[in-house]
Amino acid sequence: MLLIKAATIIDKNSPFHLQTKDILIENGLIKQIKHRIDVKEDVEVFDAEGKFISAGWFDMIANFCDPGFEYKEDISTGAKAAAAGGFTGVALLPATKPVVDSKSLVEYIINKSKGNIVDIFPIGSVTKDAEGKELAEIYDMQQAGAVAFSDAPNPIMVAGLMMRGLLYVKKVNGVIISHPHDETVAPAGQMNEGASSVMFGMNGIPSLAEDLMVVRDIELAEYTASRVHFSSISTKEAVSRIREAKKKNITVTAGVNPVHLVLDDSSIADYDSNLKIFPPLRTQEDIAALKEGLADGTIDVISSSHQPQNAELKDVEFEYAAAGMINLQTCFALANEALKGILKTEMLIEKITSSPRKILGLPEVSMQENAAANFTIFDSEEKWELKKENIFSKSFNTPFISKIFTGKPIAIYNHSQLLKL
């Protein structure tokens, strides 16, 4: 048995929301939540005074590179990085080799991830090999355990194919995760198009490349009455378009990578290839719009967009570097710092707990008596330093090594396992 002492519960679905309680865990279930629970000799006690406890955090957009790119990351190291970041659940994009586009590959992910404290959910590809030419085995993958469908990081360029995909996932109550980028607009782009790209002498990626696809997929969602989730939006116009769509009750949702809340395109002045991500870092005006979208509910989810890349793909000139950044261990702290004074802690936590699970149709996780124990204990004020030796990913492609962060997970609990961080 485990007794959590004096934790403040952050869970809008719980009758104990914002209350400081003792929580008794027995056989993987929350047996009691009371103001005070007397301690027995055979009970492990975790002192959480001054700390928060919430439903286990969930990352909706991550890459573990397995199968095929295990030299960047594998399911074991990815799960360890997720756990260290406070997550008890992760949904994995199908950008592997081979691409997760069949029942057998969905089953491979599920079987290989068994036994982890972190629940891992495969996302199947919408099209075969994520090539955007022919629909993949959507029904078979859904039956095998795929929780959503996406070709990310590839966009689905053909509108008719995207429409047919939406009609198909509607039959299985699924959702397509859109990677909104029109690659024909800026095929050689390296960073956001604007004053900074001119100053740094690099080809730009205009906001238009994202905005066009957001508008198209909103129209397709309305036409098919199916569901689209935008994986990681980055522009002011995208926020505005999604806000308008929600007012019209079109079934679209959106996520954001917290890196896009803290860094703008001027950060690339030193040509640090770790800052080459996709979508690219935008402007301060875009950052303000993203924060406003989070505050008013236009943006539903905060996701890490965890994308490991090995040194050979990053320790090169910015122009030739692969896009991507590891972010599971820094995701919460980046969001916590960027949104201080904009989002209350409970609103931030909702975007990494209940919102992603709801979009993916996963069972609710909540701090209630007789519910399965799946939670994260965290301190929103604790300061910590990201050190290279404490990174659990196989890859180290992050610009934040040696940075001092504010906000840290303290422990996670899932499947009758407690992990102190």
Produce the secondary structure layout.
Elements: E1 2-10, E2 20-26, E3 29-34, E4 44-47, E5 52-55, E6 57-62, H1 75-84, E7 87-92, H2 103-112, E8 119-122, H3 138-144, H4 159-171, E9 176-178, E10 191-192, H5 195-200, E11 204-205, H6 207-224, E12 228-230, H7 236-247, E13 252-256, H8 259-262, H9 284-296, E14 301-302, H10 311-314, H11 331-338, H12 345-350, H13 354-360, E15 375-385, E16 404-414, E17 417-420
Parallel strand pairs: 1-4, 1-5, 6-7, 7-8, 9-12, 10-11, 12-13, 13-14
Antiparallel strand pairs: 1-2, 2-3, 5-15, 15-16, 16-17
Notes on the protein architecture:
By secondary structure, the protein is α/β, with parallel strands linked by helices. The chain has two domains: 2-53 and 369-382 and 404-420, Urease, subunit C, domain 1; 57-360, Alpha-Beta Barrel (TIM Barrel), CATH 3.20.20. It is 28% helix and 21% strand. The protein is built from 13 helices and 17 strands. The strands form four sheets. Strands 1, 2, 3, 4, 5, 15, 16 and 17 form an eight-stranded mixed β-sheet that branches. The model has no long low-confidence stretch (mean pLDDT 97).
